[in-house]
Design a protein that fits this description.
Blueprint (H helix, E strand, L loop, with lengths): L2 H17 L8 H18 L5 E4 L16 E2 L3 E2 L9 E6 L5 E6 L4 E3 L4 H30 L4 H8 L2 H27 L4 E4 L1 H38 L2 H5 L8 H15 L19
Parallel strand pairs: 2-6
Antiparallel strand pairs: 1-3, 1-7, 4-5, 5-6
Helix pairs in contact: 2-3, 2-6, 3-5, 5-6
Keywords: Membrane, Transmembrane, Transmembrane helix
Protein name: Transmembrane protein 127 transmembrane region domain-containing protein
GO biological process, one term: negative regulation of TOR signaling
Amino acid sequence: MNPSLDLDLSRMQTLLKWIVYDVAESNFASGFINIFVATLSISALISSDWVLIEDVTNSTAIEPFYDFPGAERCERLGTRDFWSISSFGGYVESNGKKHTAYRTEDRVLWDCVTPLVADLFYLLIALCFVVSLTALCGALLHVLAPPHGFLVWLRRNTIMEMCNMMLCLAACAVAIVAETTVAGLRPESSVSVGSGLFLLTLAGLLSFLSALMSLRHFSRIQRARRIDNQRLLCARSLRSWRDTGRRADDTRPIVDFERYLDSSTTTLEELDPIPKPIETI
């Protein structure tokens, strides 16, 4: 046979393994949940409500700085505020009090963003992006159910979901640190977390739910296959081996296998002791 034709056939077989999949292995529920997790993380990525700032004292200490073009009162901060090119500036009053300015292309924010706060929000942007990407990969794994070893290991052990849970937890911790830092910059204001943190928290909880549903789906498939194996293998044909004059060591594995087929829920240790073979004279 032509070697080049054999090579083409092997390549075609490899390609078909990636394209053709078993629908019974697909977990559409976990796939849908992962898509929803990706949607929530993208919503958190474009949110402007990660940190809410409310001036409870109606202070006008920084009102003179609103004369700058684009200057506005800092009432909320979000990851969307850190997409564009930005720079930092400042002003020192005669009494030594410092004011920090965060400049973007279209506005200037006073006394609410420092380089540390900006770095924390850049980290939040990276975490939200990775969560959305990981959730989409998990959705593809659950829906397509590729039969390859490493991908099967990722799907059955819910690696993507566990990564998303840890990433969401890390993002929530970073958001709380950012909120605490902003509160230190604005002691006269009431600073709290916004909807961005809650969106990512919900994404982490849904990742946990997706992991539970994936484990349940895999358990049901394993049990169904075990029942099918019991139906295909007839225990009666194996019981006839007990009448043969073989040694006890030969019959023991067969009896163990019969007892495994007879019980789909109990373990071998819970069954009665194995009867000893009858010695013939």
